[in-house]
Design goal:
about 260 residues; seven-stranded mixed beta sheet; 7 strands; globular
Length: about 260
């Protein structure tokens, strides 16, 4: 048993288990955070910025064309619709049926969706997936051991996972939260936990092997979406002397065969 007071114990983001009551409370906060505010950053748009996140995630996930993928935190479909367009068999999961309804409305074709907490995903599927993927979702969640155990339970042997996330020590994210009225640290609760030392051990405790993290990119959409900005970013990525932390990273691993 933890020696911490109940409230402190419930606020940890990297422990082995997340109490059911605390998770329900957290889910209500998260639903309010996303259901009641229009967030353009989650809209499905085809831009160089979005394409790079998808390209880097798929590269580390090593997903074969046509693979059956479970996408967690699908939201409005920013990653879902491009994945479907690339030929993947996507099942989109999100806590919010409101967001999934908007995803369906925006999609050019029907997409299989599941509205539930990801830790309960096994109750809602009758298949095993070739892989799991997520785009900027883990830093909204808590209880990573529970999450990765749940994912491992619905993945085939040898299935891979890949999650694109912010880099915890990049100060621009905290500045963005501070100056954006519709954002809050409560909504981005695990941003500071987006570190290899937190996420990879949680994956390994859930049975994933060959876990890895890789950082990339520096710029926000306004710069990445112009050709000169992309050229500068690529140049900076090859300069060992450039000290500023990357903005993005991919966590990956696979289940045992």
């Amino acid at each position: 048993m933890s020696d911490l007071p109940p409230r402190v114990s419930a606020l940890q983001t990297d422990g082995p288990s997340w109490p059911a009551q605390a998770r329900e409370t957290r889910n209500r906060v998260q639903r309010k955070y996303f259901d009641t505010v229009e967030r353009s950053r989650g809209l499905p748009v085809d831009t160089p910025y979005v394409r790079r996140h998808i390209d880097e995630t798929l590269a580390d996930g090593q997903f074969a064309p046509g693979a059956a993928l479970l996408e967690i935190g699908a939201g409005l479909g920013k990653g879902t619709i491009p994945l479907v367009a690339r030929g993947f068999d996507v099942t989109a999961n999100d806590l919010s049926p409101v967001l999934l309804g908007r995803l369906q409305a925006a999609a050019p074709q029907p997409i299989r969706t599941i509205a539930c907490d990801v830790v309960d995903i096994a109750r809602y599927v009758d298949r095993q997936f070739d892989g799991a993927v997520g785009f900027f979702v883990l830093h909204h969640l808590v209880g990573f051991d529970d999450i990765f155990r749940a994912l491992a339970g619905v993945l085939k042997p040898g299935a891979r996972v890949a999650f694109c996330e912010p880099v915890a020590w990049n100060p621009l994210y905290y500045l963005q939260i501070a100056v954006t009225p519709t954002m809050s640290l409560a909504g981005e609760i695990s941003l500071a936990a987006m570190r290899p030392g937190v996420i990879l051990p949680a994956m390994e405790r859930a049975g994933f092997i060959e876990t890895a993290s890789r950082r990339f990119g520096y710029f926000p959409p306004v710069m990445t979406n112009i050709r000169s900005g992309r050229r500068v970013e690529r140049w900076l990525e090859h300069q060992p002397w450039f000290p500023f932390p990357h903005a993005f990273q991919v966590f990956s691993g696979r289940t045992a065969s």
